[in-house]
Amino acid sequence: MTIDPRDTTRRSLLATTGSLGVLGLAGCLSDDDEEDEGGNGHDDDDHDDDHDHDDDHDHDHGHMDIETFEVIDRDTDDVAVYVHGDHWHGDPLLVPKDDNLSVEAHVEDDHGDEVALGDDEEYTLNARLADGAQGIVDLESHGDHLHITGEETGITDIVFQLWHDDHADWESPALEVEVVEDIDDHDDDDHDHDDDHDHDHDDH
């Protein structure tokens, strides 16, 4: 039997073409496997970018955990009121009408480290009226201390803030503030009331 040389050439060409097609297909599959090592249908580089984005989203800006917040009367250096959990001790804070109470704060974070306050520090002491509170006091920040000026007698609520750049990183619970005509007279009245209470207790 005579073999046509043209048939041999065609067979060789088809065999070669088929081999190249198989190799090309294997190469495509290999590239896809490398791009999808995690089996998630996405390129791993893109997945890493998404993970980095999530890290940025999870970072909690504008929040501090404060363990100690004491408001100190700058005239007496005594602690006037202090935060305990979600409430205050020693309230109400008395403020004189037509005068100001100058206060500073002793602050420690949840690691026990003192938080420095001042215009040259990372944080300053600030305050605002609580939502819905009467505007009977004026609040003026001086970086490391605060002036609370009584404008009308009565009771209101304020919120202390640790201010950073243009926002508060921490806010206190609402503090009751009472504006009185004379703090000394108010203190004497409270003392007399306590004495009467003690006297009644002794009689019983």
TrEMBL record:
PROSITE patterns membership: PROKAR_LIPOPROTEIN
Domain of life: Archaea
Region ranges (Disordered): 24-62, 181-204
Bias (Basic and acidic residues) ranges: 194-204
Biased composition (Acidic residues): 181-193
UniProt-recorded name of the protein: Aspartic acid-rich protein
